[in-house]
Amino acid sequence: MTSHIPIIAIDGPSASGKGTVAKLVAEKLNFHYLDSGSIYRTIAYAGRLQNIPLNNEALLLKVLEKANLSFKNDHILLNGKDVSEAIRSEESGRGASEVAVHRALREAILGFQRSFEKSPGLVAEGRDMTSVVFPHAGIKIFLTASAQIRAERRYKQLISKGNPANMASVLSEIILRDERDLQREISPLLKTKDAIEIDTDTLSISDAVDNITHLFSLKSQTS
């Protein structure tokens, strides 16, 4: 697949900062933004509302078929209801990781994800944006950080939102999600050969954003 529309694809593990970075890059370039993880979170959320086990792929597919999922001004709507905050819970995060292992489910949302590829450009973030969804992306980034640093960020984020959190539990959950993402048979998290790795252990969000927009500027000048 080839496209004249510029795409910046960003992959990385949980709590690596890719969501914040991707959104800021999109705002800076005035590009469209795709948070692919929110799709899986919404499917998990919808499944739980109907008491569907998240390991039941067939029933989850039926949920997806009947669901009206849309993005509007940074809000995620499920059947017309804004679920943007509801899907940001740790439970929905765990659920997203569980439903993401289903091959048919991933294939079913592929077209929806690719529909975000529109002018003037797209910044897409997730686990398989560079490898599966947008392998033709002009710029591929693998944003990472140590499990400890990511757990500290997630812990602070939860506390700041008034959610109860335990540092040891958050770290354990980060490690568990890493294992699930890296070891799943379908579209595992990986750094593609043509992706540029950015480690945010000691790098600020603004510096990461500047690095990526600079890469885009250089790419635009040479293409």
From TrEMBL:
Residues 8-216 form the Cytidylate kinase domain. SUPFAM superfamilies: P-loop containing nucleoside triphosphate hydrolases. Its EC number is 2.7.4.25. Its main location: cytoplasm. The keyword Cytoplasm applies. It catalyses: CMP + ATP = CDP + ADP; dCMP + ATP = dCDP + ADP. One of its GO terms (biological process) is pyrimidine nucleotide metabolic process. Keywords: ATP-binding, Cytoplasm, Kinase, Nucleotide-binding, Transferase. It comes from the Bacteria. GO terms for molecular function: ATP binding; dCMP kinase activity. ATP binds at G12, P13, S14, A15, S16, G17, K18, G19, T20. It is found in: Cytoplasm. GO terms for cellular component: cytosol. InterPro entries: Cytidylate_kin, Cytidylate_kinase_dom, P-loop_NTPase. Belongs to the cytidylate kinase family. Type 1 subfamily. This is Cytidylate kinase. It comes from Candidatus Methylopumilus universalis.
